[in-house]
Amino acid sequence: MTDSGQNQAAAPLYWPARLPYGALAGVRTRRIFALLIDLIVIGLVFCALVMVMLVLGVVTFGLTWLLIPPLFPIIALVYNGLSISGWRMATPGMRAMDLEMRTSEGGRVSFLIAAAHAVLFYLSWTILTPLVLLVSLISNEKRCLHDIAVGVVVTRRA
After folding, report:
1. Which of 26, 75, 79, 88 is most buried, by the most CB atoms less than 10 A from its CB?
2. What is the rounded CA–CA span in Å between residue 70 and residue 67?
3. HEC string for the chain
4. Are the C-beta atoms of 124 and 146 separated by less than 8 Å?
């Protein structure tokens, strides 16, 4: 009788299974420091825009002050969307920590996926913090819950 292929190992269906050795080494720690760098950059941009809006608020009788509360999330979405979908595939914090983000198939991340990833990330920190961290600790690819939801993988550049 011939073997029907049941004893053979199945080929990996997605990109992380074919990652080179060391591509995921230290990713969790590097992501934390990358997040801190990115939050500082986003905070500086936010502060600069708030200063401009405060001055404009005097001219517009306070109407531009209504735009201040949603400003931080908007900056964060545009920052993540543009930088991750760009040619470097990483935010400035991720680049400083030698990280990049790709789709599960190994391709570039689109702006919409990067923005959705940012939304899920910020929501997960406000709602599901322990669950997000636990998933990262048990995942072979060191992926967080929001990474799995949008189909991305964060790896080392080298």
Report:
1. 79
2. 6
3. CCCCCCCCCCCCCCHHHHCCCCCCCCHHHHHHHHHHHHHHHHHHHHHHHHHHHHHHHHHCCCHHHHHCCCHHHHHHHHHHHHHHHCCCCCCHHHHHCCEEEEECCCCCCCHHHHHHHHHHHHHHHHHCHHHHHHHHHHCCCCCCHHHHHHCEEEEECC
4. yes
> What does the radius of gyration of the chain's CA atoms come to, in whole angstroms?
20
Give the residue among 88, 57, 77 at the shortest CA–CA distance from 121.
77
Backbone φ and ψ for 103, nearest 5 degrees, come out as -75, 170
Tens digit of pLDDT at every position of the chain (158 positions): 444 444 444 434 455 556 676 778 888 889 989 999 999 999 999 999 999 999 999 999 889 999 999 999 999 999 999 999 998 999 999 999 999 998 888 889 999 999 999 998 888 877 766 667 678 888 777 888 888 889 998 888 86
Contact 80, 118 (CB under 8 A): yes
Helix-helix angle 71-85:111-127, to 10 degrees: 130
